[in-house]
Write a sequence for this structure.
């Protein structure tokens, strides 16, 4: 496994990576399998080791909005596992994927302070914007297509509704 540039594992030391992998158990999913579902609550994170997944949400009209594509080295589900909130998006395997499922991620972070700081830095950057976009998609579902959402979520959903293929085919968020 080679972590993709910018993914969580690229920011950890070899010792931290070994400890993180040892804290969980291996798991695999076939292409098309739902790894995490939007709205679910859960106490686990996934450290993606092989394969790619898409992170997506749906508009009130049923159009899928792809928020991100993640690859090896990615950490998924961290926000929900830490704060107990519902998952902000659905994660689907684009190809066969494998990774390590880690329960009690907050406990791991409590004993690995530098990893917690690395995650905090990542969350306050692009990951926070991703969650904000997903939240905007959910708010648009509740307030209709003309509602106001933070950031580019409103534009993203409108573009997805205008340019997405019929039948729920993916439309790339921009």
């Amino acid at each position: 496994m080679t972590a993709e540039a910018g993914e969580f594992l690229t920011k950890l030391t070899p010792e931290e990576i070994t400890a993180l992998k040892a804290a969980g158990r291996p798991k695999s999913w076939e292409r098309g399998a739902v790894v995490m579902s939007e709205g679910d609550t859960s106490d686990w994170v996934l450290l993606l080791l092989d394969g790619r997944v898409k992170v997506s949400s749906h508009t009130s009209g049923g159009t899928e909005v792809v928020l991100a594509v993640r690859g090896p080295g990615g950490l998924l589900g961290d926000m929900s596992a830490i704060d107990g909130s519902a998952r902000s998006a659905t994660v689907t395997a684009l190809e066969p994927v494998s990774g390590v499922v880690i329960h009690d991620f907050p406990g791991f972070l409590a004993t690995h302070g530098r990893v917690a700081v690395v995650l905090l830095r990542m969350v306050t950057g692009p990951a926070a914007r991703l969650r904000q976009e997903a939240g905007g998609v959910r708010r648009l579902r509740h307030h209709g297509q003309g509602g106001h959402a933070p950031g580019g979520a409103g534009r993203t959903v409108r573009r997805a509704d205008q340019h997405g293929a019929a039948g729920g085919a993916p439309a790339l968020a921009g």
